[in-house]
Specification:
The chain has one domain: Isochorismatase-like (Rossmann fold), CATH 3.40.50.850. Helix 2 runs parallel beside helix 6. It contains six helices and six strands; from the N terminus they run H-E-H-E-E-H-E-H-E-H-E-H. By secondary structure, it is an alpha/beta fold.
């Protein structure tokens, strides 16, 4: 009987302790406020002809939509350009440029890369930190090449990367779809909600 009473008392004590509110300052810290940027990867005249036309039309429309969404809500848009020191396309050439139907402007920060990841030996990390960015939304090409490499590069540097659905391009539309299975991604509707909410905070 005494043993049973002891067990009941211990159970009541445990229950009471569990119901006591956490001591002030002991709560888990709130997650950091989202500070987003849109990174537009390699949508250049030199590469677009090699991409799957099924991707190109839909993706360009969604890329422009995302650019407008970020710009309208005061968040940065960053343009990334690829060039090979030996094979080009050379900066300043037509092949190096984004086509005129992509809505980037000279006011958007510009990063030039020589490797697949836009973070490797570039100032992208510095640009993002200067703008206070902690969440990177990715659009552009190639979904299975430079965009994916940049996604993992962002993750390695503790950014929160997300692919924007319908805004990626690769040489094979079926492979583009597989990227959404491999990497964290977000629909346009969810992206709009997030960005407009982030602006309101």
């Amino acid at each position: 009987m005494k043993m049973r009473r002891t067990m009941v008392v211990l159970a009541l004590v445990a229950l009471a302790v569990a119901s006591v509110p956490a001591v002030a300052g002991a709560e888990k810290p709130a997650p950091p406020k989202m500070r987003p940027a849109l990174v537009v990867v390699d949508v250049q005249n030199a590469w677009l002809p090699a991409m799957d036309p099924k991707d190109v039309k839909v993706a360009i429309e969604h890329i422009n939509w995302a650019i407008k969404l970020f710009r309208d809500n005061g968040f940065p848009v960053i343009r990334v350009y690829h060039t090979d020191p030996k094979e080009g396309p050379l900066p300043g050439s037509e092949g190096f440029a984004f086509p005129k139907n992509v809505a980037v402007t000279d006011a958007d920060a510009m990063v030039v890369k020589n490797y697949s990841s836009a973070f490797k030996k570039t100032d992208l990390d510095k640009v993002l930190k200067e703008k206070g960015v902690n969440t990177v939304f990715l659009v552009g090409l190639s979904a299975v090449g430079c965009v994916m490499a940049t996604y993992y590069g962002a993750d390695d540097l503790d950014y929160r990367p997300l692919m924007v659905k319908h805004a990626l391009i690769s040489h094979d539309a079926a492979l583009t779809k597989s990227v959404y299975d491999i990497c964290a991604n977000i629909s346009p509707a969810a992206l709009r909600l997030l960005i407009e909410t982030a602006k309101a905070q």
